[in-house]
Amino acid sequence: MRIGEAARAAGVSARSLRFYEDQGLIVPGRYGNGYRDFCQVTVDRAQAIRTLLESGVPTRLIKIILTEQLDGGAAELDLDAVDPAVVAAIRDHRRRIVARIATLDERRIALDRFLAELDGPRRSARSEPPT
């Protein structure tokens, strides 16, 4: 399939597919006229890449996971072949995500307190009968 159809099928933009290709994350075939030819395996990989990027995984780790760790385009990761350094990098990335979540949660709680304080005086002023 051509890039527009592949983009729709993968739920990404054509620009994203070009970026994934530039990063070495996907390798679409080529027609004789130079147009890209995307197979279903490449579309599936693009969907996986999008999901990983949305979760904050950097492209350097995605490339390792999807390109080097998948055996010839296999659909499943060969767990015995995973480099311990890759696992360590993924665990480190996960720790950073957990820390960001904790920070955001603290900020949400602070905002909730602030809003509750703002709403408190207004509620009591509204509930008092006019004099």
TrEMBL record:
GO terms for molecular function: DNA binding; DNA-binding transcription factor activity. The keyword DNA-binding applies. Keywords: DNA-binding. It holds the Pfam family MerR_1. SUPFAM superfamilies: Putative DNA-binding domain. Residues 1-68 form the HTH merR-type domain. This is DNA-binding transcriptional regulator, MerR family.
